[in-house]
Amino acid sequence: MKTLWLKVAISVNLLVLVGLAFAYPALMVSPGPLMSGHSRLSNDCFACHTAWIGAPADKCVKCHALKDIGVRTTTGLAVPAGGKMKVSFHQELTEQNCVACHHDHPSPRLAEGARRAFQHGLLRPTTREQCETCHASPGDARHQQLATGCRRCHQTTGWKPASFDHGLLTPAVLERCEGCHKTPADSLHERIQGGCPQCHTPKGWKPATFDHSKSFVLDRDHNASCATCHEGGNYKRYTCYGCHEHTPGNILSEHEEEGISDLENCVRCHRSGDKDSAREGSRERRGREGDRKREHDDEREHP
Q: Has residue 296 got a pLDDT over 50?
């Protein structure tokens, strides 16, 4: 008998609670006050909610017409330009699920964990490709020179990281690396005349195709590290005395008979370790110096 009365009491209490929830929902089940825009509905929970279901989107669009969201207010006034929303995109959503992103009870946010921020996957595929309809195009010089859509480099999951492809640039812009990249300030690049493409490619800064043989051939006897000849990382100068057992005096005595007195620039004649190439370079140099001497003598005789 006691068990029966206990069950009856519990049932009566439950019925009273359910009745109170329907009669005074704002007091019984509300998670908090409404946002200021919906404050007039504070005592009318069923204006947005349906019992046992929640807040279906069809009740939202009774006041917020889908075609007017972001364009006009619920009273028909035009939404002023320059607000938080740059452009209306609600009309391009694949589903109408307002409470997935929006909440009307800002504090306490009891259901915040169940909500999601805006995702580009909610947009129709055709709209998803038109980034410029919602986002302003970057004003920097790099993006102004591109004639392609954002999706060629960026993803809807985030602006970064990007997969920029130099092939998107015009040939004229592609040659002007300094338009986007800062010129290296080390001594190696300071002495190089010409643009970056003569050594580097748009695929990557490394590996580079710098041709050392244009200055000196790194043959089997001279395939040394840079620091061996360029001391202190100074590529404007080099020395041959780091390996060769020469002295300036010995070098001078050997070169005086060739008529060579400038011993500061060995590679002027020695383009490699090959003696024949040195003789050839020396003959060419002596020939040029002889031509200049004859021209000078002619000018003196025939002013």
A: no
